[in-house]
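Figure 6 in text form: structure in, sequence out.
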Protein backbone atom coordinates (compact mmCIF):
# COMPACT_ATOMS: atom_id res chain seq x y z
CA UNK A 1 0.00 0.00 0.00
CA UNK A 2 1.46 3.35 -1.01
CA UNK A 3 1.21 6.62 0.86
CA UNK A 4 -1.11 7.92 -1.85
CA UNK A 5 -3.48 4.98 -1.36
CA UNK A 6 -3.48 5.60 2.39
CA UNK A 7 -4.18 9.31 1.79
CA UNK A 8 -7.08 8.51 -0.58
CA UNK A 9 -8.68 6.11 1.89
CA UNK A 10 -8.29 8.54 4.77
CA UNK A 11 -9.86 11.40 2.80
CA UNK A 12 -12.71 9.11 1.71
CA UNK A 13 -13.40 7.92 5.28
CA UNK A 14 -13.28 11.42 6.71
CA UNK A 15 -15.21 12.99 3.83
CA UNK A 16 -12.43 15.49 3.12
CA UNK A 17 -12.75 15.32 -0.65
CA UNK A 18 -11.20 18.75 -1.19
CA UNK A 19 -7.84 17.44 0.00
CA UNK A 20 -7.76 14.88 -2.83
CA UNK A 21 -7.63 17.73 -5.37
CA UNK A 22 -5.11 19.82 -3.41
CA UNK A 23 -1.47 19.71 -4.55
CA UNK A 24 -0.05 21.75 -1.66
CA UNK A 25 3.39 20.31 -0.82
CA UNK A 26 3.21 21.52 2.79
CA UNK A 27 0.05 19.49 3.38
CA UNK A 28 1.61 16.46 1.72
CA UNK A 29 4.68 16.69 3.97
CA UNK A 30 2.42 16.97 7.00
CA UNK A 31 0.54 13.87 5.87
CA UNK A 32 3.79 11.94 5.42
CA UNK A 33 4.71 12.89 8.99
CA UNK A 34 1.32 11.68 10.26
CA UNK A 35 1.68 8.38 8.39
CA UNK A 36 5.19 7.93 9.77
CA UNK A 37 4.06 8.71 13.31
CA UNK A 38 1.39 6.00 13.21
CA UNK A 39 3.72 3.60 11.37
CA UNK A 40 6.29 4.08 14.12
CA UNK A 41 3.64 3.38 16.77
CA UNK A 42 2.78 0.14 14.94
CA UNK A 43 6.47 -0.82 14.57
CA UNK A 44 6.32 -0.47 10.78
CA UNK A 45 8.78 1.04 8.33
CA UNK A 46 8.45 4.72 7.45
CA UNK A 47 7.93 6.40 4.08
CA UNK A 48 9.81 9.33 2.56
CA UNK A 49 7.18 10.24 -0.04
CA UNK A 50 3.57 9.41 -0.84
CA UNK A 51 4.71 7.18 -3.69
CA UNK A 52 6.64 4.91 -1.30
CA UNK A 53 5.07 1.57 -0.52
CA UNK A 54 4.51 -0.19 2.80
CA UNK A 55 4.10 -3.95 3.11
CA UNK A 56 1.22 -4.47 5.52
CA UNK A 57 -1.04 -7.23 6.75
CA UNK A 58 -4.76 -6.48 6.63
CA UNK A 59 -4.80 -5.86 10.40
CA UNK A 60 -1.85 -3.45 10.15
CA UNK A 61 -3.46 -1.64 7.21
CA UNK A 62 -6.70 -1.12 9.14
CA UNK A 63 -4.86 0.16 12.20
CA UNK A 64 -2.67 2.45 10.11
CA UNK A 65 -5.60 3.97 8.24
CA UNK A 66 -7.67 4.56 11.38
CA UNK A 67 -4.66 6.05 13.15
CA UNK A 68 -3.96 8.40 10.28
CA UNK A 69 -7.65 9.36 10.23
CA UNK A 70 -7.42 10.16 13.94
CA UNK A 71 -4.34 12.38 13.65
CA UNK A 72 -5.48 14.00 10.40
CA UNK A 73 -8.83 14.95 11.96
CA UNK A 74 -6.99 16.30 15.01
CA UNK A 75 -4.72 18.40 12.82
CA UNK A 76 -7.83 19.98 11.26
CA UNK A 77 -9.38 20.58 14.71
CA UNK A 78 -12.22 18.13 14.03
CA UNK A 79 -12.36 16.77 17.58
CA UNK A 80 -15.60 14.78 17.30
CA UNK A 81 -14.33 12.81 14.33
CA UNK A 82 -10.94 12.37 16.00
CA UNK A 83 -12.64 10.80 19.05
CA UNK A 84 -14.37 8.22 16.88
CA UNK A 85 -11.19 7.27 15.07
CA UNK A 86 -9.23 7.28 18.32
CA UNK A 87 -11.48 4.53 19.65
CA UNK A 88 -11.24 2.57 16.41
CA UNK A 89 -7.46 2.97 16.30
CA UNK A 90 -7.07 1.76 19.87
CA UNK A 91 -8.88 -1.49 19.13
CA UNK A 92 -7.23 -2.05 15.74
CA UNK A 93 -3.77 -1.25 17.17
CA UNK A 94 -4.17 -3.97 19.76
CA UNK A 95 -5.02 -6.56 17.14
CA UNK A 96 -2.27 -5.37 14.78
CA UNK A 97 0.34 -5.67 17.55
CA UNK A 98 -1.15 -8.93 18.87
CA UNK A 99 -1.62 -7.42 22.32
CA UNK A 100 -3.75 -9.68 24.45
CA UNK A 101 -5.00 -8.93 27.92
CA UNK A 102 -3.89 -11.49 30.44
CA UNK A 103 -6.49 -12.62 32.93
CA UNK A 104 -5.88 -14.81 35.87
CA UNK A 105 -8.57 -16.95 37.45
CA UNK A 106 -8.64 -16.64 41.20
CA UNK A 107 -11.11 -17.60 43.87
CA UNK A 108 -12.08 -14.81 46.24
CA UNK A 109 -11.19 -15.28 49.87
CA UNK A 110 -12.10 -13.28 52.94
CA UNK A 111 -9.58 -10.68 54.00
CA UNK A 112 -10.41 -10.87 57.70
CA UNK A 113 -9.20 -14.46 58.07
CA UNK A 114 -12.68 -15.90 58.56
CA UNK A 115 -14.14 -18.76 56.63
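Output sequence:
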Amino acid sequence: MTGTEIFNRVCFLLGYYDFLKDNDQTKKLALIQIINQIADDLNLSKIASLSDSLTLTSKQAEALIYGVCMLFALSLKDSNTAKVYSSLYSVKRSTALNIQAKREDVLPYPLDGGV
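Caption detail: The radius of gyration is 19 Å.
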